[in-house]
Amino acid sequence: MQPDALETSLYDAMAALDIIDCHEHLGPEKDRVESQVDVFTLFSHYTRGDLLVAGMSEPDFRSLSDHDIPLQRRWELFRPYWQEIRWGSYARAALLAAQKFYEIDDINDSTFELLSERMQQANTPGIYQRVLADTCNIRAALTQCGSTDVGTPLLKPLMPVFFDTRSWEFLSNEPCVADTEVSSLDNYVEAVRRYVVRVKSEGAVGLKMVSNPYGTPNREEAAAAFDALRADSEMYLADPNPLKDYLADQAIAIGTEEGMVIAVHTGYWGDFRQLDPLHMIPMLQRHEKAKFDIYHLGYPWMREALMLGKGFPNVWLNFCWTHIISQRFAVAGLDEAIDLVPMSKILIFGGDYSMAVEKVYGHLVMAREDIAEVLARRIRRGLISESQALELTRKWFWDNPKDLYSLDL
Ligand SMILES: [Zn+2]
């Protein structure tokens, strides 16, 4: 079924909007243009999961990016699994990117070589500008690449505050303390503060954590665990533990004092039982002044994530990644979010890509389709006018992320 005239009209109006992309993993552009690209660059990221689940072995997947193997041979490895995953939302973003940037209607036996040639030809300085700014109207993209040295004002970094407390080796090598000697828990927390102050001065606008199960922070128990870990390099501390609970809590407090947004991955990834959005509730209650940017609508716990937005003034709901997890889910989530939460709380788009910058466009097309579908239905039911609906899209794509992250644009 083709989108009707109303959906098309909404889509076209949204295509003219300036956009703040609310989450990427894009690194400096030179990393992309210095790498050899081909059709498999479009399958280097989330589609990996689909290919492995379809039965592709990990070594075969890795060989897709091995340019010493002829492209034809790699295509033959890929082809049977591509047939199985090509109708999914991840694959659609790749197909849309191939159509838009390389005039390749379908990725198949007769096009993979030409697509690869065209991608390599276009892999030149300015590709971020051409894809993100010129094609997508993206004026700023929040990115997490583990560095504030992103090389362009188009990218606004967020920095991780993950604490791997499993061993002293891991803990003492966390980026926030990697360049300092830490001899006590208080020492460690002070190093975290210096790190937050430094990355902020380098342009970072937020910190990133995950919605693991966190216990109530207890400084004494955390200090005991810290000292034990430091004294015994062989010691292994399982998750969850009081040290991690305390450090995560301190990081939120410090980030908030320093004016950073706390971005939180919720749901889907690996053993996603450890990433239930509901794990965040004690943190939301303890840190009333913090601003929590809750990512991904907690898939598959969509209603749980929505309820965080419903019940807590310090929560924003970020639809990054959702439209390529499943367009059905994103449509349902947005429709319910409009029923549930103030319109100032919705951040509607984040591509969530790293090397395959072209797929940001594919994802954005899917996001616009989802929004148009939801809003057109509401307009037809007489719940909102078309101009009011477009006013909402402007808030979701621009005003809300600009305000939440205090972006100077
Ligand atoms: Zn991400």
From TrEMBL:
This is Amidohydrolase-related domain-containing protein. Residues 191-406 form the Amidohydrolase-related domain. InterPro entries: Amidohydro-rel (IPR006680), Metal_Hydrolase (IPR032466). It holds the Pfam family Amidohydro_2. The lineage of its organism: unclassified sequences, metagenomes, ecological metagenomes. One of its GO terms (molecular function) is hydrolase activity. PANTHER family: AMIDOHYDROLASE 2 FAMILY PROTEIN, NODULIN 6.
